[in-house]
Amino acid sequence: MKLVIPGGTGQVGTVLDRALTAAGHEVVILTRRPARERELPWDGRTLGPWAAAIDGADAVINLAGRSVSCRYTPANLREMMDSRVESARVVGEAVAAAARPPRVWLQMSTATVYAHRFDAPNDEATGVIGGGEPGVPRYWSYSVRIAKEWERAQAEARTPSTRKVALRTAMVMSPDRGGVFDVLLRMARLGLGGPVAGGAQYVSWIHADDFVRAVEFLIGRDDLDGPVNLASPGPLPQRAFMRALRTAWGMPVGLPATAWMAEIGALALRSDTELLLKSRRVVPGRLLDAGFAFDHPHWPEAAADLVRLVRRR
């Protein structure tokens, strides 16, 4: 297959590119800073010569958007919104203008669209969309708004010949440097991987291998469209999540942190505490109903596998 991946140079794009290329597919990356022959320049906002790559492609997998690993200042939140909505809009324009439009357009979204909750898991059918939860920072609602506008930009694109899937993705865990697993493992190795603010908040995650397999599964399933949760079926509280990671590495100590300590740590990492404190209890209802089988459904086993890959590296 010919696959076009806008925004394919980040952590998730690197995982997909590596796996899909190794499987023998032709992969074209759209990026602001092309460095390889099969990378094409684009600005994520306007149509250009890059649109020719989409004409005749089998699938488009749009991952473009400013990283969420930053301080959630008004300027950064606006850039997160604009980079996602504008890239989805212009990908839709390219698909609509293609003489031979792709069969499917997979659009990255986020599990953050669901409400901060502890009582029940969020699947696609019964999950509660966030934005109005009591007792959480007001700016958290902007993250939900970003997710909703992101999905709306895809849904409103006039692409009648192309199936559209919104990938409501949890944290993708890969052994690559600079990714979320790398950061969490570094904390665990330093003895800082204890419960944060009590650790009751749920962590939703997906092993990189299962993420790739789910993307391939969705490309091949013509009966699936709309929002699909890409998350393991085993979300777990943060304290249990980090305990399993410490066990996988062999670190017996994990110092706890209060919410204000987490704020200081997030400030030092130029990140935001929403990534640590929001309870994301998300499960893959539609994938499971469609018969998708996870290779890594449980976090202790997945953490052990990822640690093994890191040590091999």
Walk me through the structure.
By secondary structure, the protein is α/β, with parallel strands linked by helices. Helix content is 40%, strand content 15%. The chain has 11 helices and 11 strands. The chain has helices at 11-22, 51-54, 74-97, 140-155, 180-189, 208-220, 238-249, 259-268, 274-277, 285-289, 299-312; strands at 2-6, 26-31, 39-41, 59-62, 104-110, 163-169, 171-173, 202-203, 205-207, 226-230, 236-237. It has a 7-stranded parallel beta sheet, sandwiched between helices. A two-stranded parallel sheet has the order 7-9. Strand 4, helix 3 and strand 5 (104-110) form a beta-alpha-beta unit. Helix 3 runs parallel beside helix 4. The two termini are 30 Å apart. The mean pLDDT is 94.
Q: Short description, anyone?
A:
The chain has 313 residues and is of the alpha/beta class. Helices cover 40% and strands 15% of the residues. The protein has helices at 11-22, 51-54, 74-97, 140-155, 180-189, 208-220, 238-249, 259-268, 274-277, 285-289, 299-312; strands spanning 2-6, 26-31, 39-41, 59-62, 104-110, 163-169, 171-173, 202-203, 205-207, 226-230, 236-237.
Helical residue percent band: 25-40%
Ranges with pLDDT <50 over ≥5 residues? none
Strand line-up across the major sheet: 3-2-1-4-5-6-10
Average predicted confidence as pLDDT: 94
User: What are the secondary-structure elements, in order, as H or E?
Assistant: EHEEHEHEHEEHEEHEEHHHHH
Shape: globular
The biggest sheet, with number of strands, parallel, antiparallel or mixed sense and barrel status, is: 7 strands, parallel
Residue share in β-strands? 15-25%
